[in-house]
Design brief:
It contains three helices and no strands. It is mostly helical. It has one domain. The longest helix has 31 residues. The chain is elongated, with a radius of gyration of 24 Å. The two termini are 39 Å apart. The model has no long low-confidence stretch (mean pLDDT 86).
């Protein structure tokens, strides 16, 4: 995980911390269609923006090569094979 990943996860946590309050507020605003619609739009855009950034990062991670095992046995691996005898 790099600093950008940490910032992205912090944004997820920040959005999460507002969801209950926003949902309650929206449930009380149903009687005013214009305000309700705007609140739903704001919520949807927050999900969309964050989701798009997360999926972009996943695409970057998928393109990264998988770590390769060491070509030569590590000293510990050699020592473990000796102990197994």
């Amino acid at each position: 995980m790099n600093p950008e990943d940490r910032a992205l996860l912090d944004r997820v946590l920040q959005l999460h911390s507002t969801l209950t309050q926003r949902a309650v507020l929206l449930s009380h605003l149903r009687s005013d269609p214009d305000v309700f619609t705007e609140g739903m739009r704001d919520l949807g855009l927050d999900f969309y923006d964050l989701g798009t950034e997360i999926l972009h990062r996943v695409t970057e991670l998928d393109a990264m090569p998988a770590p390769r095992p060491p070509r030569h046995p590590t000293p510990l691996a050699g020592r473990l094979s000796e102990l197994a005898l």
